[in-house]
Amino acid sequence: MSSRFFRGGDDSSSESSSDEEELLTEEEEDDNQNQQGDSEEDSDDMGSDEDDSDDSDDSEEGAGRFLKSGADSDSDESDEEVRAKVKSAKDKRLDELEASIKQIENGQKNGDWTLISSGVTHVVCILMQMGLLANTRIEYDKLNRQVTKLPGGKTPKPYIRIISELEDFMNEALAKQKVTPKKMNATQARALNAVKQKIKKTNKDYQTEIDSYRANKDEFMESSEEEVAPAPKPKKTVKIELDEAPEVDGDDGFATVGKGGKTLTYTPESIFKHLRGIMESRGKKNTDRLEQIGVMEKLLEIANTPYQKIRVLLTIVSARFDLGSSITSAIPVEHWKSAEKELLTLLTVLEESPEYIVVESAEEWEDDEKPPTLQAGEKYIKVAGSVVSYVERLDDELNRSLQAIDPHTSEYVERLQDEGALYNVIVRGQLYYEQLRKDKDLDISQDSINRIIMRRLEHNYFKPAQVIKTFEENLWSAVTEKAESAITPRSEASDAANLVNVLCNYLYSNSDGIIRARAMLCQVYFLALHSDYYKSRDMMLMSHLQENIPNFDVQTQILYNRTLVQIGLCAFRKGLVYDAQNTLQEICGSGRQKELLAQGVMMQRFNQVSPEQERLEKQRQLPFHMHINLELLECVYLTCSMLLEIPLLAQTGSSPDIKKRIISKTYRRMLEYHERQIFTGPPENTRDHVMQASKALAAGEWKKATTFIHNIKIWDLMPNTEEIKTMLSKQIQEEGLRTYLFTYAPFYDTLAVETLSGMFELDATKVSAVVSKMISHEELAASLDQVTSNLIFRKGVELSRLQSLALTLSDKASALIETNERTLEQKTQGSTNAFERGGGRGRGGQRSGQRPGRGGARTGGNTQRQAGGTQFTGGALGAAVRG
């Protein structure tokens, strides 16, 4: 302040220092406004005005007052006043306005939208050089803020000019972008969009002045030279605002201070006032959510009535859920656990105070001074809220958290332990809604209890019975003795199958649409998981979901795929190879198991996926503990395909007149690719084991095939591993017998059943049963003499060696013609001539001999195999036939 007494020597220096002081005050004021709100800004403005008046007073009563002599004339006094003259607040604001306008004009000349949107004034430059400012203000926002601060209330004409020209400049830029699309820098594009929004919002307030300026620019700007008489300064007033987001300091010995330096005190009477302030600031920019949560934790500590606790708990749980930055990121673990405990506390308070109920249909209570009370004829005090929504959000947050954690770490296991606490919250919520449903006067939506029971079912359907039993025992030991459920009684909680059945039957009776369909799928999945194949299959078929599943949402379609796969695995465990392969074909044959089961995102080579689609794919992925092992699934599918395809290949090879049929194109491609390998080493993975077993089975070496299949280590993941291996041994023996009969039938007149029994180590009765079944299905041209236990073959028209070679040549010629046609079509771009030459098979059409891919099997034409399997394998089986 000493400069005020010694500034008479140099007008320019005093003015520049005063300008710098005012600009610093302005920027500090802007900084405070960004952190503390508008009330602080007004206070700073009044403080700067007060400083201005002090400057003028000091200039007359300060240094000049002590240096004046009695002989000084009026002219000396006038000179002293000129030297001590300080710019008024209005002049300083106008100077800042001109500087901002100059900055925006420079941005227009350069076409730099970043400069226009986020340029920095001289004040910002000074503060950045001094290290007092870490981030910059938006230039357009600063311009608008300066206009609102100008005294007198009249909008400056230069401001009208620049916002009008800026709008025209923006429209020209947007028009150029539409006519000649040009890749704009991402930063410039964001700045242009930001300026567009701000202009659209701000120019509406000055539309009249803008129209006047555009009508006659020169006349409009000439009037700006007229000096407007300054309005009298209003008396200094102090504006007091309520503390909306007070600062909290948890250290002992420190007081909590809010805006304006006021010491905050939390009392039970002020709880609702603080809650309203927090709710009004929810979702606003620059809101410190952690600070608000800290305030509400203090409010919860001092709440002394059930109504206060209920209100605070509902608000604090909502605030914790707001901490998730997006729908793909979960809230922090410690806040999730706090929310879970607070939900349990809320349910406990509601159980202990039955006169208070939380329902969605309740109206908000507006009176913060007086809590609601029971009126005459009323039984409940309704509080606005939704317990089921909080439970669902808590469940979703846990899933997001598990999706983001590496499943192969101990952190995942630790996080998964929280599922038990979540399950307790879900069941406690169910008990609460059951209690409300008992009162018929309360119009409680059936949908709420359906949703919460569905959540409980979704936590049970994929778990083994023992895990469900443990969850239920821990649950009922944590609740009070008087707590009882009418839907799922405490006495029946130990029976997992009965629990799932009761929950599903309740949803069948009281819901429809997606919830009912999902309940059906959950029950079918549970039955298949526990090896009840026939019941699960019948329920799936009777539901007719396979006809309507494309109309459901993606999550339900994923559940349908998971259920279908589980039914197939159940059929395999039961030894029903054909049923298992037929069920798994739809999922495993597509090659998109990961995507269809929501266990991973598979990016196609030539498929363009937008970031939005990729985000949605990752969002719907299932947590790792719900996954179905894809390697085990592939092993089951390929093993079943082997047991069906190898006999079929042998049958079609020995009977040229049989129509070609393919059970699994995926398996055929793998098999042909394996056959083309010049050198095949020992099997290394599941697929190699199955291919080697297929080759051995086709060659009649069923023991070797059994060894290859048994050596697959993935079988250890299935329950009752030894039973599975025993079942596979029997299946390989039977299919080996069928393959042998199909291959060698043309070379036998009679064959003893005992011989077959010894070759394949099967019981004679089993051999007779297999042979009789083949004869009855007309797969084998023979008859069984039960007296002598001999198999008598009927000779048909046998092909000579020349005929077989002719058929082979015909097959190769057909394949060559089709290859030439495809090459010609590619060169002629699918012209009509190619269509005519192809006999109606246009470009992209399905051709009867076309290979679906590299190594794909031929599916039509005259591609007949000769006896001996020469097109399939050159093993011992083929060599014996050719010899």
UniProtKB/TrEMBL annotation:
| Chief place where the protein resides | cytoplasm
Organism from which the protein derives: Clonostachys byssicola
HAMAP family of this UniProt entry? Answer: eIF3c
Q: Where is the composition biased (Gly residues)?
A: 841-859
Q: What does the subunit comment say?
A: Component of the eukaryotic translation initiation factor 3 (eIF-3) complex.
- Stretches the record annotates as Disordered: 1-81, 822-883
An example Gene Ontology biological process: formation of cytoplasmic translation initiation complex
Q: Does the keyword GTP-binding apply?
A: no
Gene assigned in the entry:
NIP1
As for what it does, the entry says: Component of the eukaryotic translation initiation factor 3 (eIF-3) complex, which is involved in protein synthesis of a specialized repertoire of mRNAs and, together with other initiation factors, stimulates binding of mRNA and methionyl-tRNAi to the 40S ribosome. The eIF-3 complex specifically targets and initiates translation of a subset of mRNAs involved in cell proliferation.
Keywords attached to this Swiss-Prot or TrEMBL record, sorted alphabetically, are: Coiled coil, Cytoplasm, Initiation factor, Protein biosynthesis
Q: Where in the cell does this protein reside? A: Cytoplasm
List the record's Gene Ontology CC terms alphabetically.
eukaryotic 43S preinitiation complex; eukaryotic 48S preinitiation complex; eukaryotic translation initiation factor 3 complex
Q: What's the protein called, per UniProt?
A: Eukaryotic translation initiation factor 3 subunit C
The protein's matches in InterPro entries, at most eight in alphabetical order, are given as: EIF3C (IPR027516), EIF3C_N_dom (IPR008905), EIF3CL_C (IPR058999), PCI_dom (IPR000717), WH-like_DNA-bd_sf (IPR036388), WH_DNA-bd_sf (IPR036390)
> GO terms for molecular function, please?
RNA binding; translation initiation factor activity; translation initiation factor binding
Pfam families hit by this protein:
eIF-3c_N, EIF3CL_C, PCI
